[in-house]
Amino acid sequence: MAETLIPIYIMGKRYEVPEGLTIMKALEWAGYQLIRGCGCRGGFCGACATVYRVPGDYRLKVGLACQTPIVPDMYLTELPFFPANKALYDLDQVGDRVDTLLELYPEVARCLGCNTCTKVCPQKLKPIDYIAAALRGDFPRAADLSFDCIMCGLCAARCPGELVPYNVALFVRRYYSKLIRIKPQHLKDRVAEITGGQHDQALADIAAMDEEALKKIYVERDFEKL
Amino acid sequence: MSGYPNEMRASIKRLEATRAFRLQQDIPRLTPEQKAQLLEQCHPDFRPEGMRPVRVGPNKGQRMQNELVDLLEGYGRLDPDRVDLQRVDRDVDVLVVGGGGGGVTAALLAHEHGARVLLTTKLRLGDANTIMAEGGIAAATQPNDSPYRHYLDTIGGGRFQNKRELVHALVHDAPLVVEWLKDLGAMFDTHPNGDLVVSFAGGQCRRRVHSCKDLSGLEFMRVLRDELYNKRIEVLEFSPVVELVLDDHGRCAGAILLNLETGEHTLVRARAVILATGGIGRLHPNQFPTTNHYGATADGLVIAYRAGAPLLHMDAIQYHPTGAAWPEQMLGQLITEALRGNGAQLVNVDGDRFINELETRDLTSSAIIREVRDRKKGIRTPTGMEGVWLDTALIDIRGGAGKLDRMFAGIVHRFKEYGIDVHKEPILVFPTQHYQNGGVEIDALGRTSIMGLFAAGEVSGGVQGRNRLGGNSLVDIFVFGRRAGKAAAEYAREAAPAGSLSLDHVRRYHRELAEAGIPKGKLSPMLLPDYTRPEVRERRYS
């Protein structure tokens, strides 16, 4: 299969690479054995945040190197690390939600409402909205809006108020999940049964079963309906 | 506009035509005889050319994947004579090797039990297979379920080869781990009344996989990482272990770390070492693509084996049935089993189903390979890749509009980028390497055969037998991460101090290699895959 080569500029240096590759595969095709800027290669880990421009357009574009196809003449760099502020806290010792938020991350009050974070998010989230929800104490909403965040660092890199939206969101989600949501009864019941030793006999019995007997009950077990 | 070319769209028409019939169609589970035959005919583990016996070490004579044998038969990256073992850079109670879910869990528990902990990892903290886990965590938390049923499914799925004490530990602790994660602030999917949402996975007879949308592993990993920072546990990134260090009594007493950026090595003395280095996907067994993260290069297996720890079931590799086969950019990436667990079906080029979608992964993958390779019923892409359809539209049809968006936003988003609307159009899939079922043999406390060396998660062997069930990996890393962390902290407190440090095991291993006639070529562990082109590598003259 004949490959069509297109020019790209990796940190300003020109390479010709096959059309259709992702930025990450183009880096490797060019000869980079990556140490930083490469993690899961599947769009989950946020290791490969990349910024680029294309000629004739003043706007800065962003993407994950592992997910974003190359375009001709793009000039790009990965941002494999960003020095982000993270507050330390103990979820067993925290107080009221908004008070705690402002204590840990006072800079959230500096949000200018410029919406640059939204423009830069490769997950197409709206950090401005979840920060606003968090500030007004609507942690369930903020948790939901921020859930798909992969903590790549791009919003923090661009925020003129110097917020680190993803660390704020992580605190909010943990606070919400631990302290606002109830613990389900079926989970409490099962944990109590196990710690009370109620399943020990059944497990001891099956663990002692010979292989033929085990195979028989395995084949005969009933399935919950889909 | 559809992201599928015209020639593939013709088959989608046939798939749409059979949808109403398939919704009513019941495909019975395979009998034990049918299972054995299908695996033998089609599972990649049964390809004779894929494996060979390893010539040295504790498992000498046993067959394993060629790519792994290449590394086990490699010489160490360090010349033991050049290492100054008198110069100890760090001295800790517990050294945790690996920054995925298992390692971070072990570090948290060791810390909780009073140990001075150092966690070292090859890439960034959290860059691991954990963060990519989509489907969720299996635990018998529902009233219609029990640890007993979870035990039965797990050991049957493992073809009855699992170590029983490990399965016992797994299913017993599973609900406790779900509670632990909830108390740490993990955002599980819930029903409006607060009960946890559970889905099926292949081979699980009850709905028991707890999810956080289709980003379950991401959610657990970022919560645990955050907690590790909150506890001020020290972390070294970009610092893989290249060799374990033993003492003169043969106990594990530390490790040698490589700073990937400066090339400098450091020596860490530790009372106990916990290996949580994950799997081998980036060795690409049988040349399959993989769902695994960049660092999955079997490093932990190699260094533990060289120190004398036997491996278990390393001839059993898991190929996930549904790796993406189109678009080309997503080749091999994971398409979560939870889609099948919520009603998505596998369909061939004619629009027909060919397997019960909730069979175990080894069987489902084998059936897809049979459909494409033997029966010629695959769908061909313009680049020559073949696969079968995963009919995702059924999820909204069965569960009501909005279910796909609610539970599988990640899948919806990633395919939308390529013009594919999974609410209406199917996903093209083919098996992709996903997991090593075996690993370093452990007991129920995560102890290996080497005193002071513990292992947890994918690097360990015995929990999953010869085939792991969906949902059983996330539970494995937390259950055994917790057990190993606690046991290592207690061991570190009680064990006699280490004797003098030694790399004699490396010297012995090198001698054994030489005596087997194996020349010094490839060095191991591999540390990083190299996806650059041969044309470039050939011209690195210096």
Put simply, the count of helices of chain A is 10
Q: Outline the biggest β-sheet of chain A.
A: 5 strands, mixed
Give the strand content of chain B: 15-25%
* Rg calc of chain B: 23 Å
CATH superfamily of the largest domain in chain A: Alpha-helical ferredoxin
Low-confidence stretches of chain A: none
CATH H-level superfamily of the domain at 76-129 and 215-316 and 437-502 in chain B: FAD/NAD(P)-binding domain
Radius of gyration of chain A: 25 Å
Mean pLDDT of chain B: 97
By CATH, the topology of the domain at 76-129 and 215-316 and 437-502 in chain B is FAD/NAD(P)-binding domain
Largest sheet report of chain B:
8 strands, mixed
CATH architecture label of the largest domain in chain A: Orthogonal Bundle
Portion in beta strands of chain A: 5-15%
What is the terminal separation of chain B in angstroms?
50 Å
Just give the CATH class of the domain at 76-129 and 215-316 and 437-502 in chain B.
Alpha Beta
Structure description:
The complex is a heterodimer of chains A (226) and B (542). Chain A is an alpha+beta fold and 226 residues long. Chain A has helices at 23-30, 97-104, 116-120, 127-135, 139-146, 154-158, 165-180, 185-195, 200-208, 211-220; strands at residues 5-10, 13-18, 49-53, 61-64, 75-78. Chain A folds into 3 domains: 5-78, Ubiquitin-like (UB roll); 97-180, Orthogonal Bundle (Fumarate Reductase Iron-sulfur Protein, Chain B, domain 2), CATH 1.10.1060.10; 185-220, no CATH class. Chain A is 39% helix and 11% strand. A 5-stranded mixed beta sheet of chain A has the order 2-1-5-3-4, with helices on one face. In chain A, a hairpin with a 2-residue loop joins strand 1 and strand 2. Chain B has 542 residues and is an alpha/beta fold. Chain B is built from 17 helices and 23 strands. In chain B, the strands form 6 sheets. In chain B, strands 4, 5, 9, 10, 11, 12, 20 and 22 form an 8-stranded mixed beta sheet that branches. In chain B, strands 14, 15, 16, 17 and 18 form a 5-stranded antiparallel beta sheet that branches. In chain B, helix 4 links the parallel strand 4 and strand 5. In chain B, helix 2 crosses helix 11 (361-374) and helix 4 (101-112) packs parallel to helix 15 (472-494). Chain B is globular. Chain B starts with 5 loop residues before the first helix and ends in a 5-residue tail after the last helix.
